[in-house]
Amino acid sequence: MGAAAAAALALGLVAATTAAAYAEPAPLPAYRTAEGSKKIAGAPSTADAPLVEAGRTYEDTVAPGERYYKLVLDDRSSVYVSAVIRPAAGAKLGYSDGIEVEVLTTAGRRCPGNPGRADFAYEPVPAAAAGVRRLEEDADCQQAGVYYVKLTRTAGKDEDQRPYPVELRVQREPGLRTGNAPAPAPSYSPTAPAQEPAAQAVTREGGTGFNDARALRAGVWRDDLRPGQTRFYRVPLDWGQQMAVTAELAGAKMTKSYGSASGGLFVDLYTPYRALAGAEDTSYDGRQAAVKLPLTAPVAYPNRFASDTRTRAMRVAGWYYLAVTMGHKVGEFTEDATPVPLTLRLTVEGRPVAAPPYVEDLAAGGLGVAEADRAAARDGLTAPEAVAAADRSARMGLVAAGGFGTGTALLLGLGGWLLLARRAAAAAAAAASAGRGPTAG
């Protein structure tokens, strides 16, 4: 190879190396929407509000302002309507940007416990809020009939005004056989910090949202985060159980000698009906940092009547969701393309106690904890993976049952064939014996 060719090759290698070093990082994974969700368009007034039904998930797109949807409710259920809004990547968001969800009567009055609100905290990541029609003796909104869901997206005049996708979900919680008279509002305050697990961390990659959140149980779990990314996890909490979590970020690869993000690490806890149950955050400067979400109140039906919002959120058994976010400003002083190690120390305390006397199974509303949920947490499955595993198990059961039936038929057939063969051989031997004996006179 000539000197000129060698020099050109060397320059090419340097250029390729430089381009690789400064290549744009891969985009963050997009939010995974619910399987079978239905497209819908909320109306600017109640007069044209489209119907949303319990047990369904819907996809809409909303700009700043109000959108309305219609509900037809019975008088025997509490109903939760959640909205998960997903800002555009890199969107400019202000302190007041967020969403509100509320359930209204046809007279325009808010039902008790509304509205539910979620703020972005300047971060263009998924945020969820929920409105509720709560069964409660002698309260408003107890009658069967038409109600409205009002979804309000707030945005400052100098902030992003583009429409954002929203996932709406309607869940129904059946009433109790013994009625719905409110129990005395409980009070709860942790008597001691939760004991953090110290085992070796096991890798569990979080999901992009509620629909593919990774199942966890008590233990120590390992994942990675990039600036502006949120990882979702889910934890089954039964009646009488409570949880706490610590999220740790390890050191990052710095691109500047110093940097700091006041909102560097966020941990949000959501209920089975996607309402915020707790939130903590801390700054991050590229060195070790941690956020502790304290021990929740034990899950109990009377919690819904508590005055404390965190206690009130722990009202029903089911999947509780953790959303862990690294602030996007961390990317201003760290290598965006290099994930930062994340450690979760999850504590679950309390033995499950008997469920309240519901008139129906909670599972129909996506609530409650079943043995399959505990198995999913043990195996670290997302909801789609758990469904696929159940399908595979069912198919294997059918194949095994079919194999057993076919094998049994073959054995029976072989047994019959052997029996016939033995009878034929016995008959032939008798005939031969008769031919060799004395002749009759």
Distance between the termini: 116 Å
**Structural class estimated from helices and strands:** alpha+beta
According to DSSP, the number of beta strands is 19
Radius of gyration: 31 Å
What's the tally of helices? Answer: 4
Major β-sheet strand ordering: 1-2-9-4-7
Q: Can you summarize the main beta sheet?
A: 5 strands, mixed
Strand content: 25-35%
Task: Give an account of the 3D structure.
- The protein has 441 residues and is α+β, with helices and mostly antiparallel strands.
- It contains four helices and 19 strands.
- It is globular and about 65 Å long.
- It starts with a helix and ends in a 5-residue tail after the last helix.
- Mean pLDDT is 88; it is low at 13-21 and 430-441.
Strand-helix topology:
Elements: H1 3-21, E1 38-39, E2 57-62, E3 65-73, E4 77-85, E5 98-104, E6 116-119, E7 127-133, E8 145-154, E9 164-174, E10 202-203, E11 214-215, E12 219-225, E13 230-237, E14 242-249, E15 261-270, E16 276-284, E17 289-293, H2 309-313, E18 318-326, E19 340-349, H3 371-379, H4 383-436
